[in-house]
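STRUCTURE:
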């Protein structure tokens, strides 16, 4: 059975420790060979845009841009459809490799055999 981890992060710069924890867990899971799907919702939606992660700073944590690169290299990074629309973010705006999808896809991933879901 494939190990799958679906993570939904709702926090952004408004809650930096919680935000960093989600990205760190996702990147470590990818490095460990786990199939990872990280969902950007709420204020974390901004990190789907080029350059936004470089502006995030949290002492004693890995750079968010590096974590995103690691996640994109071996996992899936998804921006919530509604969150994107509320922020007027389109598919043309996001980092290469980021997809925009809705709740139905999240539920499918979270309910798949072998999946574990976390929310930050």
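SEQUENCE:
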């Amino acid at each position: 059975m494939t190990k799958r981890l679906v993570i939904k992060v709702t926090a952004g710069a408004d809650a930096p420790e919680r935000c960093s924890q989600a990205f760190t867990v996702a990147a470590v899971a990818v490095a460990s060979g786990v199939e990872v799907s990280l969902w950007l919702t709420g204020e974390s939606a901004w990190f789907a845009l080029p350059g936004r992660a470089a502006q995030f700073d949290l002492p004693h944590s890995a750079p968010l841009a590096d974590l995103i690169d690691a996640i994109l290299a071996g996992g899936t990074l998804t921006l919530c459809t509604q969150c994107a629309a509320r922020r007027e973010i389109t598919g043309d705006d996001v980092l290469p490799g980021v997809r925009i999808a809705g709740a139905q896809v999240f539920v499918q991933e979270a309910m798949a055999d072998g999946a574990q879901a976390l929310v930050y």
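REMARK: The CA atoms of residues 56 and 64 lie 7 Å apart.
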